Amino acid sequence: MNFLVRLIISTLAVLVTAYILPGVHVENFMTAVIVAIVLGALNTFVKPLLIFFSLPAVIFTFGLFLIVINTFMILLTDKLVDGFSVDGFWKAFLFSIVLWLVTGIFNVIKKRDEQAQ
């Protein structure tokens, strides 16, 4: 059940972020679900390897290089998912930041809802 809730939150976050940002296009709801699944899989399997191999840059920038790694995850998702497109590096950079914020907001709402019950 927790996986399904996280998937719904991620899907809604992708849709909201794509709606907010020009240059990011999501064809439909099902595409947003696939984007959420692919991003989750990339963040689980590929991102730790990228962090490991770029550890000096991550340490030197006090973790800010992680935003660049997130940007590459989004660009890779753009290449893997038909119906999802990002117009270049800087749009993907902004998408990663806004997606992080929107996901955080949805998670706060979810926690407040759980506490209210």
Describe the structure.
This protein has 117 residues and is mostly helical. The chain has one domain (2-105). The protein has helices spanning 2-20, 29-45, 47-53, 55-60, 65-80, 89-116, and strands at residues 24-26, 84-86. The chain has a two-stranded antiparallel sheet with strand order 1-2. Helix 1 (2-20) packs across helix 6 and helix 2 crosses helix 5. The radius of gyration is 15 Å and the shape is globular. It starts with a helix and ends with a helix. The mean pLDDT is 94.
Defining traits:
79% helix; two-stranded antiparallel sheet; mainly alpha; 117 residues; globular; 2 strands
Q: Which series of helices and strands comes N to C?
A: HEHHHHEH
Count of β-strands? 2
Percent of residues in beta strands? 5-15%
Helix/sheet category: mainly alpha
Question: Measured on Cα atoms, how large is the radius of gyration?
Answer: 15 Å
**Arrangement of strands in the largest sheet:** 1-2
Q: Taking all residues together, what is the mean pLDDT?
A: 94
Secondary structure: helix percent: over 70%
Which term fits the overall shape?
globular
User: Main beta sheet, described?
Assistant: 2 strands, antiparallel
Q: Which stretches of 5+ consecutive residues score pLDDT under 50?
A: none
- State the end-to-end CA separation: 17 Å
Number of continuous helical runs: 6
Which helices and strands occur, and which strands form pairs?
Layout: H1 2-20, E1 24-26, H2 29-45, H3 47-53, H4 55-60, H5 65-80, E2 84-86, H6 89-116
Antiparallel strand pairs: 1-2
